[in-house]
Design brief:
Blueprint: E1 12-17, H1 21-29, E2 34-38, H2 48-60, E3 69-72, H3 81-88, E4 95-98, H4 104-120, E5 130-133, E6 153-157, H5 161-167, H6 181-197, E7 200-203, H7 212-225, E8 229-232, H8 238-244, H9 249-263, E9 270-273, E10 276-279, H10 280-292
Parallel strand pairs: 1-2, 1-8, 2-3, 3-4, 4-5, 5-6, 6-7, 7-8
Antiparallel strand pairs: 9-10
Helix pairs in contact: 2-3, 9-10
Length: about 300
Amino acid sequence: MPIAHEPISARSWLFAPGDSEKKMTKAMEGTADIVLIDLEDAVATENKVAARGMVHDFIKNNPAQRARLWVRINPFDGPYTLGDLAAILPAAPGGIMLPKVYGRQEVEKLDHMLSVLEVANGIEEGSTPVIVLITETAEAMFHTGDYKGAPRVVALTWGAEDLADSIGASSNKNPDGSYSFTYELARSLTVLGAASAGVTAIETISADFKDLEALRKRAESVRRDGFRGMLAIHPAQVDVINEAFTPTEAEIAEAQEIVDVFAANPGVGAIGWKGGMLDRPYLARAQRLLKLAGK
């Protein structure tokens, strides 16, 4: 029987190149909830095969951190995917990131491959979770709502750079630096797709790792929109992301007050509170925030 994975609770997802033990170690020793060891974009073609062995050994040599050590493999539209999986699965990574998908069928293909490799390596079948980059190809944009019940999927995220390449755009930004319409659409479809699938929505990277104030504002904004974490490309971004996606004491107190008000008035659909009206969606949001805060 397939393992039912819960939506993952992880605020910061820090990329580290799989061909640099120094950078993998630095990422692991930091405060990122998930370390995404990268075999794709961060590794040059001539280093990809050697990087597989380095990643395997790094995960194997750090068993206490295994649950945090995920791997971004290469996509199915190239020649490296199966080799990546065959090399790293014996080390039992915490999870897999699948990039550049064209649709749900690639997640199902990955599930089959992982199952074979898990059984072959004495790992519980179905136990390796997956996060999917669902907007990096033009075709994938039409399938962002297709991941409900997809095997192993615990989170969805999006990307803007590969999407721009896919559609032949010269830029994905407006003159003021904000994302242009197509990429804001990708962001919206990701949070909607994640909600539909019942999994966690993760915001894409902020490429300017030196502008931490802009990162903070963006992280706080997307959390209000429904995202529960964010990808990072530099260790300096991690603490900002963790703080932005952690409910504040004031938010927790207000949410608890809303829950208490409804608990004191069972069966009421709407109730007056602080000069306004609360209805059931307010209660649902308050309950989600308390769950996020571990209350």
